[in-house]
Amino acid sequence: RTHFYDEGARVWVREKEQLVPATVNSCGDGTLVVTTDYGEVRIKTAEVTREKVYAMHQSSIDGVEDMSALAELHEAAIMHNLYQRYQKDNIYTNIGSILAAVNPYKQISGLYDLEKVHQYSRHQFGELPPHIFAVANECYRCIWKRHDSQCVLISGESGAGKTESTKLLLQFLSEMSQNSAGTPASEKTTRVEQAIVQSSPIMEAFGNAKTVYNNNSSRFGKFIQLHFSECGNIQGGCVIDCILHSYGSVTPHSDHTRSSCTCCVEHFSSSYTQSSAVMLCHHL
Ligand SMILES: Nc1ncnc2c1ncn2[C@@H]1O[C@H](COP(=O)(O)OP(=O)(O)OP(=O)(O)O)[C@@H](O)[C@H]1O
Question: Which residues are recorded as binding ATP (predicted)?
Answer without folding.
Answer: 156-163
